[in-house]
Amino acid sequence: MSMGRKKIEWVANYMPLLNEIGRLGKPFKGWKIGMAIHMEAKTAYLALTLNKLGAEVIATGCNPLSTQDDVAKALSEMGITVYAKRTHDEKEYLKTIHNVLDHKPDLILDDGADLTVIAHTERTEVLENLKGISEETTTGVRRIKVLQDEGKLKVPVIAVNNARMKHLFDNRYGTGQSTWDSIMRNTNSLIAGKNVVVAGYGWCGRGIAMRAKGLGAHVIITEVDPVKAVEALMDGFEVSNMDRAVEKADIIVTSTGNKDIIKEEHLLKMKDGVILANAGHFNVEIPMEQIEKMAEEKFEARQNVTGYRIKGKRIFVIGEGRLVNLAAADGHPIEIMDLSFALQSFSLMYLSENYKNLENKVYEYPEELDKKVAYMKLKTLGIEIDYLTQSQMDYLKKF
Amino acid sequence: MSMGRKKIEWVANYMPLLNEIGRLGKPFKGWKIGMAIHMEAKTAYLALTLNKLGAEVIATGCNPLSTQDDVAKALSEMGITVYAKRTHDEKEYLKTIHNVLDHKPDLILDDGADLTVIAHTERTEVLENLKGISEETTTGVRRIKVLQDEGKLKVPVIAVNNARMKHLFDNRYGTGQSTWDSIMRNTNSLIAGKNVVVAGYGWCGRGIAMRAKGLGAHVIITEVDPVKAVEALMDGFEVSNMDRAVEKADIIVTSTGNKDIIKEEHLLKMKDGVILANAGHFNVEIPMEQIEKMAEEKFEARQNVTGYRIKGKRIFVIGEGRLVNLAAADGHPIEIMDLSFALQSFSLMYLSENYKNLENKVYEYPEELDKKVAYMKLKTLGIEIDYLTQSQMDYLKKF
Amino acid sequence: MSMGRKKIEWVANYMPLLNEIGRLGKPFKGWKIGMAIHMEAKTAYLALTLNKLGAEVIATGCNPLSTQDDVAKALSEMGITVYAKRTHDEKEYLKTIHNVLDHKPDLILDDGADLTVIAHTERTEVLENLKGISEETTTGVRRIKVLQDEGKLKVPVIAVNNARMKHLFDNRYGTGQSTWDSIMRNTNSLIAGKNVVVAGYGWCGRGIAMRAKGLGAHVIITEVDPVKAVEALMDGFEVSNMDRAVEKADIIVTSTGNKDIIKEEHLLKMKDGVILANAGHFNVEIPMEQIEKMAEEKFEARQNVTGYRIKGKRIFVIGEGRLVNLAAADGHPIEIMDLSFALQSFSLMYLSENYKNLENKVYEYPEELDKKVAYMKLKTLGIEIDYLTQSQMDYLKKF
Amino acid sequence: MSMGRKKIEWVANYMPLLNEIGRLGKPFKGWKIGMAIHMEAKTAYLALTLNKLGAEVIATGCNPLSTQDDVAKALSEMGITVYAKRTHDEKEYLKTIHNVLDHKPDLILDDGADLTVIAHTERTEVLENLKGISEETTTGVRRIKVLQDEGKLKVPVIAVNNARMKHLFDNRYGTGQSTWDSIMRNTNSLIAGKNVVVAGYGWCGRGIAMRAKGLGAHVIITEVDPVKAVEALMDGFEVSNMDRAVEKADIIVTSTGNKDIIKEEHLLKMKDGVILANAGHFNVEIPMEQIEKMAEEKFEARQNVTGYRIKGKRIFVIGEGRLVNLAAADGHPIEIMDLSFALQSFSLMYLSENYKNLENKVYEYPEELDKKVAYMKLKTLGIEIDYLTQSQMDYLKKF
């Protein structure tokens, strides 16, 4: 068996929801689904599942750097039309977006809205056949809302990111675990007893802090929201501004969604040997340009770890300041993506069934489907929960 | 020094925000504030603080059962007009509400909306002088919204419960700790190694579960919301329906906000010696009537603990199924109430300054005051946090 | 039912091992057991259990201050000969020790060795009938070893404190929980977000620190053993010397087994409102004399809490610096004492069966009885564990 | 810079104790140290440190499979005589042991006692110059004690494993972290919400269980010692026999030091997709032979992960049942080995200074050196702890 196929088979072991959804018949029979997603094993298995549900699937990546060619090849051999290639430059990448649209898909599964935006601007002829779009990310939703505000959106869109089963889970449990998986495997450094600074106490930051504590670290939180700062304190963490935190830090993880979290003056205060990792979406939180400029010396310290010498002290950056769990490890754990992709699958089914009654706007993720995914997850685990009785429902209405 | 005064002086030690607010001059000079609140040391100190800020304060309880007469007496000796008495029956209690309104207060601080509702129905003549109302609870807000919907609300109202510094804190950290304080002191029972069932994984349930885990218990969560159930699971708890959970339970704590959480069939499945406690607002979660009916024997097992024998097995209920931290301990920790009462103080100041520009409706708690309380808390702890730079604010707008 | 009896009945609910042991027939038929123990509900139930096993039991306290007269009265009504009284002075207390010895017991259950020492010095005539002694505490064992070293010990003695089921459990899980139970009930103060200093990282300190963390505190450990200090660090705690720790402390708990843990210079550095509690055996860890001497003012701050004003700052001491869980709460949780008393019961049975073959020296607790108690505990919980197969035993011998 | 050298430079960043020890002058000037250790970056840095301290160092591996040739090459280029090679078969490996002995070392640093045993049997001529041996492992110590018991031991030996700074740390914090690092990187599987069975609640098992809990798992402990089983329960874990545990298990980690922990009947009860990993020293805990025999199908599931199909269900074994953190990851975190190697360095210095006064027997690790390493660790972290005063030392003697 090829390595690409092995990778896909492996993730299939831990995607019980997609496995169950794959047994739901052929709801997509006669439908073409175009998708632009990170081309790796987990998404490949989503493509295969949609195919099993009857769809003709045409796929490309949403960023050439995340494309794994062996997976793309295996996927192609398993019946999916695949255009992604890791070596593609920006122009070649955009060409593959057009390749997908050439198939005139009925539904689009988008990650970042490249398919959607190009369909609505350069390739409006494909809108005729397009019935609905399911968008994975916040960034993508924002881009689509611009289309909507300009009155240009021509199909109903479902914002998957806003589903509770997505944003409550992938940030806390997905980022929380995979950030430390990445830091540990890339440094072989002990976490217990270390001073770990986590910048930002949003969902990601909470997950990262919770797991750092679980690994025995002393965790220091920095925040700009005073309410979150008090929460962090009550959760047992030390709270500080970055200026003081950097002086104690052995490891700093940024997860704020903002830029310039670490500033020039902080770089000068750091301890020799400090490790920097970013868990925020964009590589703007650690000031890579500033570091490059200030460094007397730059060297490859370990695989995925770059060393810089600034005023004689060494600073180590994992994965060049990019999202540390993706740039230097395997991304979210499989089971987390299984939840997200179950949401995606139901989103696409919902669109295929209801598109005629939907307006051309961005919809929140349907609450009943959100709960459906949660119930499925519980079922695969053999867990039964309680149900409201009629008299309890009445009581809740009264109070 | 009297016991009542001692109690008030004690809480003053751990209410740094009220202490600081008390130094803000005389913003309420010439204002009369009528309040109906649980008459105990923490609220007494709020009344004294408002008095120190210049207000003439007229106070009664919001429930005779929570009135501590020694505190009421001390408060009265310290310059507050007090009408509350523990022995009051319903009629006498309502009389004290009228007593407060007789003073024609400028502002009302309400806990459950009795002052507000009676002012708007039986005593509308007091509305003339009334400039604003600050309501502590969800229940009170709901009652006031009925007035609003019926077009009867004649003053602006601020819903303090919705402030982040209130609902994010008193449920998790306040209820979380005080529930276990109460269970431990009333039973002298070991928590470590016990099977603790927590019904409901809302803010209260999370707090209770988190602290039970922190005390070494094995925690089982019951829920009706499948998404919260999966969250509980990812947080490391066992998740089950109540039917199976009761068979394992050594201690059951209800915190759902709903009724009939424990049902007849559950009572029959419980282990001999099980301990039941309710941390939900109303005493409807544990089926006291059902228990009384089914019991062969009822006996006082320990102070605040009633024993029942059902089919030969003993079931112990703390505090008669009422809110366990209030009915059988000292309620929320002092510092939690300090946060809430800082919010109340600022709410009243806000109303006194802005009432002319406000509509006669229920307002959300002002975000800037919410943050102000958080910043004050951090300041009393000597903690500095970060601030957004202009370029960071610009970045956030862009993305 | 009398209050004393109610107290005894309550603890009986949570002492499954004593309940089971009470069903083991009449092994003590015809035997007289003299005991000097803290006279409260849990020990009363041990006396009753020994009585149920056939023994004639004659009891007194081991410290008048810990005697609960209502329990003593109830015990006496239930068939035990009781001499303890709370109001006894030292002389009257010693008289009760002689009263017990007057009965010429076959076995002695001692807590601190008063019965043992007096029997071997002033009342040597009782040694003739004495077959064995079971001693609960380290202090008692030390006193008895002095007798042994001087060649005066005339009966076999078993040191119960050294059993794994005792010292591994009562310090960590017993002291850990009951210390916080006491601090919370006596202060109504929030633990979450507080800086809690735990002096000493032995078994007690570990338990106290673990539970403080579980309640949301930021925990700082002080130690004199550098190895334990590094362990504390790896367990995620901050480690510091006392000099720096006191500056941050909101609550300080001592559990070192040594004196002068808090020194004069520390008292001057403390924050206003700091809370001091001692969880070590003797009241020498917090320097009460020094505090009394330095204080400008001393006042009763709350039940069990004394306030001192030193250079204008308030210091609050719970339970006068005595063991905080006993002096100001209900001592160890019931289930912990159940383990200890099961060990005691088996120790006495062992002595009654084997005394003829034992030498007059101090014996370690028999390993097989230690395990027997552990197996019983697991059985009462319905837990089955694994057993070594023959081939596994052989393997272990080989490696 | 060569990859081997880079690896060594990386670990040097996180070995502050070896760095400090390297500055202690030339205590080994004129001394030859022969060592047989796992030839990888961390041990290489130990060899370099001993060399820096003046010693001529001659090194080989203690197991060809753990030899990293790039590190061996770099080490050799940096002035150490190196004989290890990964491709060596048993005979070639033993040859390298003789190669080291050919140098007639003054001191031996052994890991498993191969150098020691061969020196005392086949190469007794080297004993003449040999002054002392420092042995890292329990296994090695056992082998040397056989020599001692047979009266054949001709040099003093220090058992480093028994140092508190070794066995209290590498098992709990080293194995605890690195086991999960390995499982996460090799499976990309979510740990939160999983049922993780940990077989054995010794130091290793505690570390593994503690970290699994910290990652959000529900942890089930199996034990044969009932006392440890009750401890696990009080620590908040579920306790069960293996027979029931396997039915719930998503991941099973063995760490008992015994064989046959998982038996044939257990294999048949496992859930489809279960993951097995061994954290015990020898690969006897997971029954690989039995699995191979029973499997209908065997396949490479992922790098380091072998899949087996038994009665239709898949079982995944990481690292072929060998020590999972070494066979499929990078072994203990660097800082843990820094502690161990600081102990080794001081052990060798102690032998070089005191060998004339030592007997030819196995010595426990000297307490003062154990504490010295702990103090050094604290010092590198800038942590000061307390010291006993004279009056405190006197007090401790008295009680």
Task: Summarize the model shown.
With 399 residues, chain A is of the alpha/beta class. The first copy, chain A, is built from 18 helices and 15 strands.
Please, could you describe this protein's structure?
Four copies of one chain form a homotetramer. The mean pLDDT of chain A is 96. In chain A, β12 (297-302) and β13 (305-310) form a beta hairpin. Chain A is 46% helix and 16% strand. With 399 residues, chain A is an alpha/beta fold. The first copy, chain A, is globular. Chains A and B meet through α11, α17 and α18 of A and α8, α10, α16 and α17 of B.
Reported for the largest beta sheet of chain A, the result is: 8 strands, mixed
Instruction: Tell me the number of helical segments of chain A per DSSP (H or I, 4 or more residues long).
Output: 18
Query: Cα distance, first to last residue of chain A?
Result: 60 Å
Radius of gyration of chain A: 23 Å
Residues in helices of chain A, as a percent range = 40-55%
Beta-strand percentage range of chain A? 15-25%
Structural class of chain A: alpha/beta
Q: What general outline of chain A do the C-alpha atoms trace?
A: globular
Number of strands of chain A: 15
Most extensive interface = A-B, 49 and 49 residues
Low-confidence stretches of chain A: none
Residue-averaged pLDDT of chain A: 96
Assembly context of the chains: homotetramer
Biggest β-sheet: strands ordered side by side in the sheet of chain A: 9-8-7-10-11-14-13-12
Catalytic activity (chains A, B, C, D): S-adenosyl-L-homocysteine + H2O = L-homocysteine + adenosine
Cofactor (chains A, B, C, D): NAD(+)
Family (chains A, B, C, D): Belongs to the adenosylhomocysteinase family.
Keywords (chains A, B, C, D): Hydrolase, NAD, One-carbon metabolism
